[in-house]
Structure formats: structure tokens, C-alpha cells
Specification:
Blueprint: E1 5-7, E2 13-15, E3 21-23, H1 36-47, H2 52-65, E4 76-80, H3 86-92, E5 100-104, H4 107-113, E6 120-124, E7 138-144, H5 150-156, E8 157-168, H6 174-180, H7 189-197, E9 201-215, H8 219-225, H9 235-243, E10 249-262
Parallel strand pairs: 3-6, 4-5, 4-7, 5-6, 7-8
Antiparallel strand pairs: 1-2, 8-10, 9-10
Helix pairs in contact: 1-8, 2-3
The chain binds S-adenosylmethionine (SAM).
S-adenosylmethionine binds next to helix 3 and strand 5.
Length: about 260
């Protein structure tokens, strides 16, 4: 990179935005990109530490499963659909010699992620397209509540690398599903995930992280507004529903962390 311009070996050049991220999206932003309001809600909710158990469990699993450096090269830690960089920044603290690369389709997320950690580079890109990374560039790939393209994840991982996927369990946020009209998590989601990845990966570990979050009425609209529920809610109706809940409110955090090795 020179003078705020990123150049590839084929001679293409991409401007680095003044907020510190590179936009590699071809054409207009896609429908699935998180909006500025969703990203702000996520940043506030995560900053309060409510998902710290997920970040901690992910960092520990990454440390345990990451491969040794090959020829002195530790490989990158890549987060696909990484949002504000909260989870990747936590994982980077376990990998002092590695660079982190966060891809997200939302420029609002990428702006935040570029500031999340000194060793994170943020790129606006579509996870369903070819990923803008060389074959075998990554030793660890993270995918937390975000889309994934199995063939591309396999291509960017080195053969001894690890893919770590975090998915919600059916009892995640269970106290809020009825009360706030949230989307439900399907049963058998973990098995379906392993099936969908099976042409390229084999599962090597599966853990659950389950705890209780104590949320006030300020945190609840952030939680609803930061994810897919934001597309299905009207704010006045949500305010009425939240007003009927106790404050603070105990809410279940329940996710699965699954580790996969590439099939050789
Ligand atoms: C539920 S959020 C999770 C963010 C982050 N992993 C976290 O847990 O804080 C899903 C993220 O995926 C991003 N996303 C959605 N569709 C995408 C796509 N096609 N390619 C890349 N990112 C995408 C959204 O912009 C959003 O930041």
C-alpha cells in the first residue's frame, strides 16, 4: 500500500477510505449489508460486554486449534461478516504475530472495524463472491452469526488451518422471542451447518457457551436492532413491548462454537 492506495499484483488499485477501510465491492451495496443504525446498535451492545462470553470462548478455541506457523509465517486471522470487529479484536490478542483481516459487506461495519485493533485491516466485500484473499492465506477463519461460502472458506485456509463458526442455539434469547416477537432459531441448526460444510470441511470440535445476561431497557432495543430482527420490527410496537418487561431483564445467551478442519 502506498499513499492511501492499495495496489494488487495485477496492477489494480483501490483507494483506502479516510476512515481506514478498503472497499472492494463491485457495484452498489447489497440488501444484506447492516445499516448505520444497526452497526451503531451493535457497537453499543457489544461495548457493554454482554457478548464477552462468546468472544472469550472463541479466542480460547482459536488458540487451542490454530496451527503452528509454517516457515515462520503465522498466517492471517480472517473474520467473514465480522461486523464492528469486536470478536476479531479479542481473538487477535491471542495471536501477537498475526495480522487480522475483517470482511464485511457493510461500509458502516468496516469503518468501525478499522479502528477496533491496530492489527486489523477492514475490507468491504461480499462473502458470497470470491473472497479477496490468496489461496491458503489464513491460518484461522472466524464466522460469527454471518454468511459463509464453504468453497471460498476452504480456498483461503491453509491445509492445517481451522474454521471456527458461532451459531445461535434454539434457546438463545428465549425470554424475548415471544415477548418481543423475535425470529426463532431452528432446531438441528448445528447438524445442518456441518452438512452444508461437509464437501469442504470436517468437524473436529463442538462447544456450547451458555450464560445469563442482565439487560436494562436501553440494551434491549440495541439487541433487537443490531441483527436480522431489525428488518422485521416497528420501533413504536417494540417500545410498547419492552415497557411490559421487567427491568433489568434476565436473558439467555446460548450459542454453539464449532471448529472445522479443511478436507485435504
Ligand atoms: C449478525 S451480524 C454479525 C457481525 C459480527 N460477526 C458479530 O458477531 O458482531 C452479520 C454481519 O454480516 C454482514 N453481512 C451480511 N451479508 C454479508 C455478505 N454477503 N458478505 C459479507 N458480510 C455480510 C453484515 O453487514 C453484518 O455485519
Amino acid at each position: 500500500m502506498t499513499d492511501g492506495v492499495l495496489r494488487c499484483l495485477q496492477g489494480h488499485s483501490f483507494d483506502v477510505a479516510k476512515q481506514g477501510y478498503v472497499n472492494l465491492l463491485r457495484g452498489a451495496a447489497k440488501f444484506s449489508a447492516d445499516t448505520a443504525a444497526m452497526v451503531a446498535a451493535r457497537a453499543d451492545f457489544l461495548a457493554a460486554g454482554h457478548y464477552a462470553p462468546i468472544a472469550g470462548a472463541l479466542a480460547a478455541l482459536a488458540r487451542e486449534k490454530a496451527p503452528e506457523a509454517t516457515g515462520g509465517d503465522p498466517g492471517c486471522v480472517v473474520d467473514i461478516g465480522g461486523g464492528t470487529g469486536y470478536h476479531l479484536a479479542r481473538v487477535m490478542s491471542e495471536f501477537p504475530d498475526s495480522e487480522g483481516i475483517l470482511l464485511d459487506i457493510s461500509k458502516f461495519a468496516a469503518r468501525r472495524a478499522a479502528r477496533a485493533h491496530p492489527r486489523i485491516s477492514a475490507v468491504v466485500a461480499d462473502a458470497w463472491d470470491g473472497l479477496p484473499l490468496a489461496d491458503g492465506a489464513a491460518s484461522v477463519v472466524l464466522n460469527v452469526f454471518a454468511p459463509r461460502n464453504p468453497a471460498e472458506l476452504r480456498r483461503i485456509l491453509r491445509p492445517e488451518g481451522v474454521l471456527l463458526v458461532v451459531t445461535p442455539r434454539p434457546d438463545h434469547l428465549r425470554e424475548l422471542v415471544e415477548a418481543l416477537g423475535l425470529l426463532r432459531v431452528g432446531e438441528q441448526k448445528d447438524e445442518r451447518l456441518t452438512d452444508r460444510l461437509s464437501a469442504h470441511f470436517t468437524e473436529v470440535a463442538r462447544e456450547r457457551s451458555r450464560s445469563t445476561m442482565t439487560l436494562d431497557h436501553k440494551a434491549l432495543p440495541q439487541l433487537v436492532g443490531m441483527g436480522p430482527n431489525a428488518w422485521h420490527q416497528q420501533s413504536e410496537r417494540l417500545e410498547e413491548r419492552i415497557a411490559r418487561l421487567p427491568e433489568p431483564c434476565d436473558v439467555t445467551l446460548s450459542v454453539t462454537l464449532t471448529a472445522y478442519r479443511p478436507l485435504i
